[in-house]
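Title: [Solved] AMP-binding protein 3D structure

Original question kept below for reference.
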Amino acid sequence: MGLLKQMADNDHLNFLDVVTGNTFSLEEMFFAIPEIGAFDKHLVFLYLDNKIESTAIYLSFLGTGHSTVLLSNGLDISLKESLEAEYTPSAIFDQTRPAIHGYEQNFLKNSWSTTTLFIGDHSPTRVHPNCKVLLSTSGTTGSPKFVKLSESNLLENAKSICAYLPITREDITPLNLPLFYSYGLSVLHTNAISGGTMVCGLPDILQKDFWNLMDKHGFTSIAGVPFIYEMLNRIGFLKKQYPSLRYISQAGGNLSHNVKEKFNHYCLQNEMDFYVMYGQTEASARISYVPPESLESKITSIGIPIKNGKLSLDPETGELLYSGPNVFGGYSEKKQDLSNWEDIEVLRTGDLAKMDEDGFYFIIGRLKRFVKIFGNRVNLDEIERFLKTTLDIGLVACIGIEDQFILVSHCENQMDDTEIKKALFEKFKIHQTSVKVQLLNEMPLTSNGKVDYKKITADKD
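Solution (posted by the thread starter after getting help):
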């Protein structure tokens, strides 16, 4: 049984648009997708935002045989064009552009909206039959590297999440995380299978209007990345009561110990469940979770494996390994990669970990040069290359500090901090509050002439 079929079997499922106040069934969400070409499977780029049209267009393509690449419609136009030149999608959904060179504008309709799909006139990119959804590995940086996921990957992960999250048919679930982010996509999938009302078109969770809508509609859960919980802690979330909330969940990186304890204490006092989870896009989202009743004693743990998943440690390196039916089919860095599908039995997470006597796992470090900021995974090497090229910085080192911010170290006396922060925001949409800049008298180097990141971190401490 496919993912969309499981959603269709949920007779409590509906979608609320807070902008208009209208509610739609799953069937009413579907746009009529035209014939894109002579082949059954085409590559389609979907640039999405949080409006209900984006949710509807994704669900509409989920019901076709096509393969969809989910991206932010806020990507810089140069990044969009670069990705499109590399992958030559047969069709593009992007509400930010009135026209796209080489593509003809087509109008899609359902009972409540009309939108635009651009269909190309070029030869289609060949896509493997297993490949259903492609998600970026780099958050907002627009890297051409994608994770290839099958419909089975997505469905099995959704079912495993439903096995531990207390989702019910009476739930009213806000879609406050973007669908092009694996965490946000999993919130849609799990609640569409087992939940009730999905709320679309929401303002940012840190805006007052979001909380007014929560009071109005009675949201029963909230999903957030560490930054969201850090900010909710600052703006007074923990000082108020939310009678409709039954549980909250956190993933997308490491939430600081003290903030995690505060939210756990709040949930215990208010008869709510707090689910701390660990995942990777390569595993379709979730890999492990901490049962709420264990969180107080395992506050720094990533928990235990999800149903049908298995965690282990590489005996040589201590790297955390995962296996399960939600493991992806490999990466794509160019369109030729889309015709292949790898059967990956063990996912190497890139994280160093340990396991305690109760079978709970703890992350103790990273093997790879990636960090998660605002829940988006950022390639630090890509950031460095951009700064060197764009701002003509000779030596620059970017380091992720506890998934809280990016530390940019350089030796350019004439370089203004705000210039660096502005450049990163304009190109990659990394908020300036998530970037700290330090000027060094001399860049520390290893014996082989490479930047000594450990020395920079040690000096920072």
